[in-house]
Amino acid sequence: KLEEAKAIVIDEPTDASTKIKVRQAVEHRGKRVRVFGWVHRLRQQGGMTFVILRDGTGYLQCVLSGRLSQTYDALTLTLESTVQITGVINQLPEGKTAPDGHELTADWFSVVGKAPGGDDAFLNKVNEDADPSTLADARHLVIRGENASAVLKVRAALLSSFRESYANLGLLEVTPPCMVQTQVEGGSTLFGFDYYGQEAYLTQSSQLYLETCLPSLGDVFCVQESFRAEKSHTRRHLSEYTHVEAELAFLTFQDLLEHIEELICQTIDRVLADPKIKELIDFLWGGNGKFEAPSRPFMRMDYRDAIQWLNEHGITRPGEDGVDGPHVVGDDIAEAAERKMTDMIGRPIFLINFPKEIKSFYMSRIPGDEGYTESVDLLMPNVGEIVGGSMRMNDLDELLAAYKTEGISPDPYFWYTDQRKYGTCPHGGYGLGLERLLAWLLNRYTVRECSLYPRWTGRCTP
Ligand code: 4AD
What we know:
This protein is an alpha+beta fold. Helix content is 29%, strand content 27%. It has helices spanning 2-6, 72-75, 122-125, 132-137, 139-142, 146-169, 207-217, 253-273, 275-285, 303-312, 335-345, 396-406, 414-417, 434-441, and strands at residues 18-20, 32-45, 48-54, 59-64, 82-91, 102-113, 172-173, 179-180, 192-195, 198-202, 220-227, 240-249, 299-302, 317-318, 324-325, 349-352, 365-366, 369-373, 375-380, 384-391, 427-433.
């Protein structure tokens, strides 16, 4: 049959066609078009070939019939081959379904790049049953799938929505450096490297740089990769993640909390208002109900009340002797306990006023309650902490003392210290992990699914 098929040659029709992307298909119904893309799904039935074509902008059912479906190229077509197809887009009659309710009736097609079949076929590489490490190696192919690409599309929409919210709120975007010589969140998670013979690090947070922009640019934000040499394998830790950070001047801790609430709600509402993105979000939630936008105000919970809440609800912490016990004030609440509490409460929580011992050196103390800091973690169901923020120390001597307590040399921080010398001001800010926000928004089990090419302990490829 294949030998016979080789004899069937169909010349490209000379009729004019408009080259379109799949996203433009609806507005080109009834017209003759030319589309390029990848064979996403393939079915041969009753002498016809049904191709779901994918070009990243959408999916289009294309139907090859008659002699076109008997050609060698049609009979040997494989998933993920690239093709160009010409024909007319027709709305489907009631009762038939295809993406966007229409299909391309092809009059000609040609193969641009043929993908292998057999053992090397695409589905053998990205089989969902494969073990996680095989799938991680095949991430470059996995992202072609409907789930992974939906996550990446929502991610793009979320980023542009953040930028729009920041424009509304009057913050200016800056792009701080990735290569730095100062730590922000503790020495244990620093990635170091040799910088022309000097010790340098990949940035853990752009916070200190954002603080220096306040006198020059006013309130600022950045979207920058942050790097953490995390030793622990968890659902929510990456070695590189996209960090949305902002810093604001002349505000109170209450103002800061309200700003974070406004930013999150505005950004999420805008994403949900886009019907195409809403459809992707609903798709990713599958049968597990639907995403519910958070309602304002978010719950405020003092750290000490959280400790009491955990104990009242029987959520224990692992003891050093292996025996679980009650939480005590001073504990850095562990990930599992934090998530249990957030899931039980079932709504966003601003966990505030952490003890100074478990928080970063730069956080300002609560006036009159100096053992505690003006700090906040925003906790979301299913993920836990997605934002960490605080007011910053703005007194020079207090900051110098804090370097000492932390055991870090003030020398490389001269530029940060100068902010307290040349016109200090009350200010605060926060960092939001984009992948964690996505895990919450898209009901993903791990942040690894929310990064284009995730990096975690031992994984730096593809
Ligand atoms: O709480 P963190 O460490 O705070 C800071 O870095 C501050 N300097 C930010 C600031 O105030 N400008 O990190 C902030 C957020 C966390 O809430 C979490 O969402 C995310 O960054 N994050 C991570 N996300 C993925 N993988 C990791 N290893 C992360 N570490 C922190």
